[in-house]
Design brief:
The structure is a homodimer of 141-residue chains.
Chain A (H helix, E strand, L loop, with lengths): L3 H16 L8 H8 L3 H13 L4 E3 L5 E3 L9 H9 L2 H4 L17 H16 L3 H10 L5
Antiparallel strand pairs in A: 1-2
The structure holds a DNA duplex (30 and 30 nucleotides).
Chain lengths: 141, 141
DNA sequence: CTTATAAAAGATTTTTTTGTCTTTTATAGA
DNA sequence: TCTATAAAAGACAAAAAAATCTTTTATAAG
């Protein structure tokens, strides 16, 4: 469903949201080791997210990545679209550019309801809210 | 969601199911042109499906690919698993090998219901049934 | 039996995705 | 100011996916 880049991005953002206390930051290297993800590849992804304003970073000693108050209002849909592009949540399952409710592909009815359901949840829940649930239910990252 | 190979496979099988009359066959070349899909690549995919017994074929003049009565009882889930492997319908959205209802990843609750619903439909509808609906509702391939 | 046709098989190429390495830039702290 | 740190940027490499090309095998039809 999602690319590896996207999976890494989601996990990294959720780490920042759940494991970092106020004002704390983490470097790409530490984060890559913690999540067991190739570090320089993760760094690239984090830099993309940072450039687009979805996460924050500071250079230099003691610097690293973190989420500002504003960043915590971002949704996972925004993260996903930033990394994988809009097609992954909106494109036709069979890849038809013309597919729509009015002109459905053979799988449209089946696929639309379910993916739209997932998309709705990913679009209406902020990273902050998701982080609260992860901490409450002690879910692993 | 699905690889290109898989999308091509689904479209090709649905073509065989809906557009071929009793005893009729179609070559990989014609099919590739009709579906506007790279012909030799499609041929590979069809050969895989044929080797696994999900579609039928005959060599030589007048030969080509077609669906036997038995093939029409195949489900799209079988086609999909044959091409993309089981992970695409069963693996964790975030790629955790340990993810399950008992030990959920952060997206498990959201993603599971969605994908399981789709999978259920793909697993409980045969190519024959789907083909009937496509013809009835005049859906394009 | 010969020939033309089309799948089967497999080797090869191209493109995309994933992953690494090196250099540059910013900044905190001594 | 100098130095160490860490992100930013970009070039580079490996692996996987997508696509092509060539050779072999089976078979229907003349």
């Amino acid at each position: 469903m999602f690319s590896k880049s996207c999976k890494y991005a989601i996990r990294a953002v959720l780490y920042l949201a759940t494991r970092l206390s106020e004002g704390e930051k983490i470097g790409a290297k530490s984060l890559g080791e913690l999540l067991k993800v190739p570090t320089p590849f993760l760094a690239k992804i984090l830099q993309d997210l940072s450039r687009k304003g979805l996460i924050s970073s500071t250079k230099g000693p003691g610097g690293g990545f973190f989420l500002s108050e504003e960043n915590q209002n971002v949704t996972l849909e925004q993260i996903i679209e930033c990394v994988d592009g809009p097609e992954v949540m909106h494109g036709c399952v069979l890849g038809f550019s013309t597919c729509s409710s009015a002109n459905p592909c053979p799988l449209h009815v089946q696929a639309f309801a379910y993916r739209e359901g997932l998309r709705y949840q990913l679009a209406h829940q902020t990273v902050r809210e998701l982080a609260l649930r992860i901490n409450r239910e002690k879910i692993k990252l």
